[in-house]
Each structure stands twice: as structure tokens, then as C-alpha cells.
Amino acid sequence: MTFPTTRRLLAAAAATAISALVLAGCAGSPTDTTAAGGEPQGLKVALSNGFVNGWRLTLIDKFETEAAKLKESGVVSDYSVVNAPGENSATEQASQIRSLMLQNPDVLMVIPASSTALVPVVEEACAAGITVVIVDADMDTSCGIVVRNDYGQWGADSLQPALDAIGGTGDIILNRGVIGSQPDEAFYARQQEILADYPDVKVAAEVNGFCDAATAQKEIVAILGSMPPIAAVPGCIGGMGVVQAFQSAGRDIPVVVFDTDGKSLSFWKESGIDNGSFAALTDPGQIVAALYAAIAKLRGDEVPDEVVLPLVQVTQENLDYWVETLGTDEYAANAWDEETTDAAIAALLAGDDVAVPALP
Predict the structure, then answer these.
(1) What are the residue boundaries of the Periplasmic binding protein domain, all occurrences included (predicted)?
(2) Would you call 330 helix, strand, or coil by DSSP?
(3) Could you tell me if 331 and 261 are in contact, meaning their C-beta atoms sit under 8 angstroms apart?
(4) CA 93, CA 98: separation in Å to the nearest integer?
(5) Do residues 42 and 70 touch, judged by C-beta distance below 8 A?
(6) How far is 353 from 142, CA to CA, in rounded Å?
(7) Nearest 5 degrees, angle CA 130-CA 131-CA 135?
(8) 192 closest CA partner among 172, 215, 221
(9) Sheet holding 131-135, edge to edge
(10) Which residues lie closer than 8 Å to 161 by C-beta, 6 or more apart?
């Protein structure tokens, strides 16, 4: 799912006005961070996060680990993470971002509470000379870099392996995310496109699992008594709850989509489920790629307005690796670094597919 480059063509007068206001109000501008040879050095990097959950905590850990490495090498001089208070409030995050701007960061990374309400403050940051990177969201702005996964691709990745596992025939239950949200709309639309090519697959029901195992379990339990034999429950993760619902009903376990956290993957392995079940989720490791995309931009390299990256997929073949690697509440993340990020950028500029980093 891509967006036209016309987001760069917002009114110049508005941008000029924002620039004048911000530059008048800031206590300075980002520091000169270009060393000999054009390599960025001594960057100040700030991450503004809209809310905290387990997936975001993994993302933050990946950011801090990579930023610490870059600090040791001198590329980064200082880094910080600020989590907006409240329940994903765009107003509170906008205030937080303006406070961060007063600290004159060279790079401002934003995981937005709202892709629309935060546009003005993002453009203020750009006008102040800050390199802004929007992470894990779309945002239609005249500036900045967007680094994200593709929700339509997530819809495909959460369905196609299940269809393959059941041989393209049988009754399934679709497990939806947050119905009405932009991610779920793209996710569901792609699933409908794929299902149109599978006339022997019948959607016996749809449930609103909210991408949450406990909710998915409750929703499945409520309808399972009236369902025919179910071959698969593809969709927005929640596989552990789905399995428990089928177990409590004494029914055969269908192909499910597990979460990518250590607890869920360990449950999968310990349950001995080997029927084509899998795990697919957006990638908290994208934050590392976002950091290196910002560095590439500051170096003067060409970087696409949108850097769209592959999701995380766990299969029976690599399940052992992830179970041995992850903590209970940690989520699987693709191992992005400078080399793989540069390769992804080059692929996008060439119109090629982006390769998933190899497992360590």
C-alpha cells in the first residue's frame, strides 16, 4: 500500500509560515553533525512514543540497544525516549514533541498517536531543521520519512499460509482486528482479494478479536457450538486464545496465527501443534531501520519518502530459534542494521522487493 509523492506538494506559504514561527521560538537549531567524508557524527536523537504496550516495549528496547552502539562509535552523542502520558492522546504527544524540539535534536522519531492530528507539529519540527521519521504509521505530510510495514501485506501474511496449510479447501473463521481502524481496513481488504481466488474455502464466521488472545478466545467460545468443523482461524494473531477455545470445546485444533511474543511461541511449541500454524505480525525491529534511514538522509543519500518493510513471520522451521531467543514478553523482530537498511532502501528505489534480514 503506497501513497503518492504529492504529500511533498503542500502549500509553500503554509510551510514558510510554520518555519518562521518555529525558528523564532526555538532556542537554536540542530547542531552541525557532518564529519569529514560526509559521515554524520554526534547526532542527538529523540523518540516520541504515543503509548506503551508489550510490542512497543520491544521496539523501544531495540532502539535503545542500537542507539547505544552508535553512541560508542560516535555517530550518536545523545538519545532519549519519551512516552506520551495518557491513553494514546495526540494532544499530549504534540505537547511532548514541542518540548523535545526545544532540546534541538538532529533526529526526531515519532510513533504517532494519530496520523492526522500530529501533522502540524511534525511539520513544525521539519521547519526547525530537524530530520523527522514517522514510524509504524502512515502520515500525509510535506516532509519527513515514513518507515512502516504494509497493513495490506500483513493481511496477506496472516491468511495465505493458512490457506496453503489446508490445501485451499474447508471452513474457516476470520479473526478481525479493530474493525473500522485504518490498519484493519487495509488488512481485511487484502484478505478479501485473496479469498476471491479460493472458491472452496468458506468463511463460516468472522469474529472481532481485537488482535488480542483473550478477546479472540472469548469471541470463538461464543460461536463455536454452532460452527461446522473449522480448518483454520486466520487473521489478526490471538492464536493462543483460539487454541484454548477449541481445546475447551474438545474440538480439533485448526491452523491458527500465533502472536510473535515469547509466551505465545513457547505455548505453540509446548503444545506440539504441527498443522501449518504460524505467526505473523508487524515488526518492532523497524525502529532500527528507521534510525539508519535517518542517518542515510543526513549523510546525503537518496531515501524514499516511504520505506515500507517486510513483517515478521515465524514458521515451524524457525520456531525453535525464536523460543530460545525471546523472553516471555519480548516480541520477535527482524534483525535490521545499517547494511540491511541500506539494501532495503536501494531495493525500494529500484522498485524491487525488500529482503527480510537473515536470522542471526
Answers:
(1) 51-300
(2) coil
(3) yes
(4) 9
(5) no
(6) 26
(7) 125
(8) 172
(9) 76-83, 43-49, 107-111, 131-135, 145-149, 306-309
(10) 234, 255, 276, 278, 280, 313, 315
pLDDT of the chain, 360 residues: tens digit per residue: 333 333 333 333 333 333 333 333 333 445 556 554 578 999 999 999 988 899 999 999 999 999 999 999 999 999 999 998 767 689 999 999 999 999 999 999 999 999 999 999 999 999 999 999 999 998 999 999 999 999 999 999 999 999 999 999 999 999 999 888 778 899 999 999 999 999 999 999 999 999 999 999 999 999 999 999 999 999 999 999 999 999 999 999 999 999 999 999 999 999 999 999 999 999 999 999 999 999 999 999 999 999 999 999 999 999 999 999 999 999 999 999 999 999 999 999 999 999 999 998
Q: 96: part of which helix (H) or strand (E)?
A: helix 90-101
Q: Is 30 helix (H, G, I), strand (E, B) or coil?
A: coil
Q: Where are the beta strands (DSSP E) in 97-169?
A: 107-111, 131-135, 145-149
CB 308 within 8 A of CB 353: no
**CA 195 remoteness from chain centre:** 24
For residues 237 and 281, give the distance between their C-alpha atoms in angstroms, rounded to a whole number.
Answer: 7
Q: From residue 126, how far is each of 20, 41, 225, 263, 298 by CA, in Å? A: 12, 20, 55, 40, 13
Question: Strands, DSSP E only, in the chain?
Answer: 43-49, 76-83, 107-111, 131-135, 145-149, 170-176, 201-208, 232-233, 255-258, 278-281, 306-309, 312-314
**Closest to 78 in 3D by CA, of 49, 48, 103, 43:** 43
pTM: 0.88
Distances (CA, A) of 218 to 175, 209, 215: 12, 8, 5
Question: Strand 107-111 to strand 131-135: parallel, antiparallel, or no bridges (unpaired)?
Answer: parallel
Which residue is listed with cell 510473535?
A: 260
C-alpha torsion sign, points 355, 132, 2, 211: positive
Beta bridge pairs of residue 49: 83, 111
